[in-house]
Amino acid sequence: MAQDPPPGSIVTPDWHRCAESKDFFDRIMHKKKRKQFGLLESPMMAPHVAVNTVHYKVLLSGKSGVGKTSLAARLAGLSIPNMHYETTGIETIVLYWPVKLKENGRVLFFRLQLWDCGENALRRFDHLLPSCKEQVDAVLFLFSFTDRTSFDDLPNQIARWSEPSDRVVKMVVGTKFDLFMHSDVTQREVMQFQERQGLPVLRTGAEASDGLGDVAYFLNCLAERLWHQDCMAATLDSCPTHYREGALI
What confidence tens digit (pLDDT) does each residue in 157-166 have? Predict the structure, then answer.
């Protein structure tokens, strides 16, 4: 697996705060809230603006109740559910995120299709796991800082997705980080886990805002690792596989 790039080494950090990015982020915003896109919808840019879109499938994995559905809603700009409910099958959400590559200044729209599958449904129905694994590009392994068992279950979650020829981007996400008074997992344990597994660990809170600030760092980190993984895997030319195979439109 390709070594993870340092944060901010591939895409321009905080580009959403720059004036030059306004036209691009306006295409995914409406009245200061995120637009919702269907499977066949995409941001519409002016004809003279050349922007390519890269497509990726991202799976959220974790013990029931860790916040997979809430994280997907947060990243897509949707309302976070007030009450927990078990996802009965597979739910998908499409989100777009524009980035500027530092190397050449090119702007790309990352189209991320988030797959949220209930853990109990995965155990009951054998056909769901192969469907989730099919053509997956990244897996986010979730645990909750308020649920010790979800942290202890991470090695089992990761082992489920480890294969000899695996080129899937893997990241760990700790949810409910802001509920530190109820935390069952220490920062020292998280750092030890990160060193042992060699995987980046991101943290999210239980609350979200309507802006981009609380998701920008997360989505940029994910975009960097996806783009880097594609560049490392490409063998025919200098373009990532998602570009070469016509996934860019």
Answer: 898 777 655 6
Question: Do 138 and 188 meet the contact criterion of CB atoms below 8 Å apart?
Answer: no
Query: Domain residues of the chain, as ranges?
Result: 15-244
Structure tokens given for 167:
């080129």
Point out which residues pair with 141 in neighbouring strands: 61, 172
Q: How far apart are the first and last CA of the chain?
A: 27
Residue 5: DSSP 8-state: P
Report the candidate in 154, 141, 158 with the shortest Cα–Cα distance to residue 58.
141
Angle at 169 between CA 104 and CA 57, to 5 degrees: 90
- Compute the distance between CA of residue 236 and CA of residue 241 in angstroms, rounded to an integer: 9
Percent of the chain with pLDDT over 90: 49
Q: Strand 29-30 and strand 33-34: pairing?
A: antiparallel
Question: What is the CATH number assigned to the segment(s) 15-244?
Answer: 3.40.50.300
Nearest to 208 by CA among 29, 33, 31: 33
pTM higher than 0.90: no
